[in-house]
Amino acid sequence: MKVIPAALKHTDLLIGEGVVKSEKRLKDTSFFADSAGVDPDLVLYEVYARTDQAKEGELNWGLSLLHPVTVNGECCMTRGHWHENTDAAEYYWCVGGTGLLLLMDEQGHAWAEEMVPGSLHHIPGVLAHRLINTGDEDLKVACCWPTTAGHDYARVEAMPFPQRAYKTEEGEIEWK
């Protein structure tokens, strides 16, 4: 019998055939409340994803890595998105670090789920979602979603998440 070598591997990162890396710097964002005086080249997060299986019934796989930085006290977070296809759910699996999964329904009600190593989070396709690093190390979250999900970033810009997480000097999280 022929044994095929693994094409993808989770080490500290997602590596392998078809994996594409993207990096988000502060200058690439407009979703922080106040970025004045913060280095625009500050790397906030990286995404490693395999999304080249774009046919009905296939799945995408990725790893988001959020650095433990703040922007004038506001915790590092992803842009957040809705799915274009609201029937397409997604799974997030925290593989390292600590943080929050911020969720929002279509009426603008928001809540957060604690992310700790090993926690698994099911995200229905009708919810907007964003990752927030509240810890002192990289937050690493593996993601699996249907190739038909699509990302609707414009909808989050039109209807932003109503709460923001800030880290105090004592390391406590405050919502504003």
UniProtKB/TrEMBL annotation:
The Enzyme Commission number assigned here is 5.3.1.9
Q: Which BP terms in the Gene Ontology apply to this protein?
A: gluconeogenesis; glycolytic process
In Gene Ontology terms, what is one molecular function of this protein?
Answer: glucose-6-phosphate isomerase activity
Question: Which CDD domains does the record match to this protein?
Answer: cupin_PGI
InterPro entries listed in its UniProt record: G6P_isomerase_prok, RmlC-like_jellyroll, RmlC_Cupin_sf
Involved pathway(s): Carbohydrate degradation; glycolysis; D-glyceraldehyde 3-phosphate and glycerone phosphate from D-glucose: step 2/4
Catalytic activity as recorded in UniProt? alpha-D-glucose 6-phosphate = beta-D-fructose 6-phosphate
Residue intervals of the Glucose-6-phosphate isomerase prokaryote domain: 41-173
One GO cellular component term, please give it. cytoplasm
Q: Which keywords appear in this protein's UniProt record, sorted alphabetically?
A: Gluconeogenesis, Glycolysis, Isomerase
- Return any one Pfam family short name: GPI
Enzyme class comes to isomerase
**Which Gene3D superfamilies does the entry link to?**
Jelly Rolls
Keyword Zinc (UniProt): no
Transmembrane segments annotated in the record for this chain: none
Protein family: Belongs to the archaeal-type GPI family.
This protein's name: glucose-6-phosphate isomerase
Source organism per entry reads Faecalibaculum rodentium
Q: What lineage does UniProt assign to this protein's organism?
A: Bacteria, Bacillati, Bacillota, Erysipelotrichia, Erysipelotrichales
